[in-house]
Amino acid sequence: MSDAADSARAEQLRSGLVDALVTDGVITSREVETAFRTVPRHMFAPEASLEEAYAQDRLVTKRDEHGITISSVSAPQIQAMMLEQAELGPGMRVLEIGSGGYNAALMAELVGPGGVVTTIDIDPDVIDRARRFLKEAGYPHVNVVLADGEQGCAEHAPFDRIMVTAGAWDIPPAWVDQLTEGGSITVPLRMRGLTRSITFTRVGDHLESRSARVCGFVAMQGAGRHRERLLLLRGKEIGLRFDDGWPADPDLLNGAFEAGDARVWSGVTVGRREPFDTLQLWLATALDGFCLLSVDKDLDSGLVRPVNRIAAPAVVEGAGFAYLTVRGVDETSVEFGAHAFGPDAVRLAETMAEQVGVWDRVHRTGPGPRFAVYPAHIPVGRLPDGLVITKRHVHVTVSWPAAQPSAAGQRVPAPPTE
Ligand SMILES: C[S@@+](CC[C@H](N)C(=O)[O-])C[C@H]1O[C@@H](n2cnc3c(N)ncnc32)[C@H](O)[C@@H]1O
Fold it and tell me: Transmembrane stretches, by residue range (predicted)?
């Protein structure tokens, strides 16, 4: 294909992608739409075909020695979602942690000629590529810096916006210190194994969430790296993944399967295609010993039937555990239940099923959880009510404003307070 034909084809594919993101409600602002229509995504992954470059999928650009993705051009729908969350405006100074070039170019379009974009990455290969592609695509003014995101980028601070595009477990002090008062950080933050892209606004010494969306990202490397711990049961058939917290005596669980099991159905149903991400977070908030259960698809004996095979909410207590399961109700809906193993299986399953009921009655139609981030030196007693997850640098609090009853007695979401 000639260069002219290639470029016409790229424009056509780009236009189709943006139309789809607008139709799906992922792009909601004219500014983000214009940026996506302007920046040539294919120039940031020249090894991909044009069709791949404009698909709603990430473009893997680097893997580690085990084949695990460590760098990519993120999926366009995730980039659009996060840019909408971040609300970049003309003249802003912004920092992107985790580079590649394409998202930095979108940010450069959004802040315009009066703004400044700095993009940093821990990997020299990624930085070389980003620098080259940004120049070739017409964004030579973006600052491209090789650095560990843990320290932010003091050289170009302060920032009105920080956008983190690697999965973070913690919020290091540099990010807050390098933020202007009223500035915001958009970060895929992992809490109890569940990642949400959260936009936090700086309010004095702490951060308060403005919006949260489900997402997944390659893990942060460098000083901020934090690995989940995996407990394998029945050989390698069942895995329990702990983000924080680890059973006092994990060996006790080996006897759980012989001790008996129990299933308790909650009476709470959900559409087969309906998201239930707030239920996962609610169970993570309400149940001690929370973890995520997975089943190896090649070794699956059918003993456990989790709500999904990759990461089902679960809880470990002593010599037993319970996880979230479902059974079909009809063509379109399923009912949640809890399935437990161990000497106290009935009580464990009842407790989890009861919390599914609490979610359904109190939080399902509510405004969803609010998150806040406080420096770790603040005593837990001074933090807002709710779950406190203590990380290396900060406490993350997860609180659940309840839905407010309407005049007719139905629950309606409480109005946003920010
Ligand atoms: C999903 S990619 C970034 C995608 C990119 N923003 C884009 O334009 O689509 C995640 C990147 O984060 C980088 N990364 C991981 N840990 C980091 C750290 N501690 N500091 C800076 N970059 C990091 C990886 O090297 C990888 O290139």
Answer: none
